[in-house]
Amino acid sequence: MYFKEKITFLKTFAKSPRKIGSVTPSSKFLTRAMLDRVDWKNANYIAELGAGTGVFTREIIKRAKPDAKILVFEIDPDLQDLIRSEHKFHKGLSLHSDAQKLYAYMKENKIEELDFIISSLPFTVLPPKMTVRILEGVLKSLKPGGHFVAYQYSSIMKHVLQKKFSHIKTRFVPFNIPPAFVYDCWR
Asked: Is 177 within a domain?
């Protein structure tokens, strides 16, 4: 599966690098840095934005409570197929395409608030209006005290996130290609 995952990721990157933002899936170090921030025993509703090949999705499923609801967003059809084929028997997981519609998908699924939102979206290369729509959806979707955990390959987004969230913890992960900043944000 890993080889197929790499090939699919590279093909998707070559086809539309603005959607992916990297030439390789996230490392285990970045995965840990992102997901160790989540309070798994109190996470009933989780969303993952920009799932890619499902590196974080696999770990979210391993760590989440058996009855947790997981909304996974991936816009690329080839990457969706990869995730769908790997996780088709997981009852709590639902796969959606456009992260800009996070809040609408929540309402359709009768989910009032999310406990955690994990993001791999390459905000710095997305159109600015799209980034604004996604972050507005994140803010409407999170419960009070809920966390938005995102990584970026530069610190450019820190200023934007500081305007939206009252608290941010930043961690640098050098053991990833490319190295990444992890932002744990909440209000």
From this structure: no
Cis peptide before 122 (omega within 30 of 0): no
> Is residue 87 included in any domain, yes or no?
yes
What are the C-alpha distances in Å from 168 to residues 42, 64, 183?
Answer: 20, 23, 6
How far apart (Å, rounded) are the C-alpha atoms in residues 176 and 164? 27
User: Between the CA of residue 179 and those of 9, 23, 30, 59, 74, what are the distances in Å?
Assistant: 18, 12, 9, 20, 22
Number of domains within the chain: 1
The answer to whether residue 179 is domain-embedded is no
Q: What backbone torsions phi and psi does residue 78 show, to the nearest 5 degrees?
A: -65, -40
Compute the mean pLDDT over every residue in the chain, rounded to the nearest whole number: 89
136: containing domain:
2-15+40-145
Mark 75-97 as b/e (b = at least 16 C-beta within 10 Å).
bbeebbebbeebbeeeebbbbbe
26 occurs within a structural domain: no
Helices (H), 88-155: 102-108, 128-141
In tens, the pLDDT along 54-85 reads: 999 999 999 999 999 999 999 999 999 999 99
pTM of the predicted model as reported, rounded to 2 decimal places: 0.87
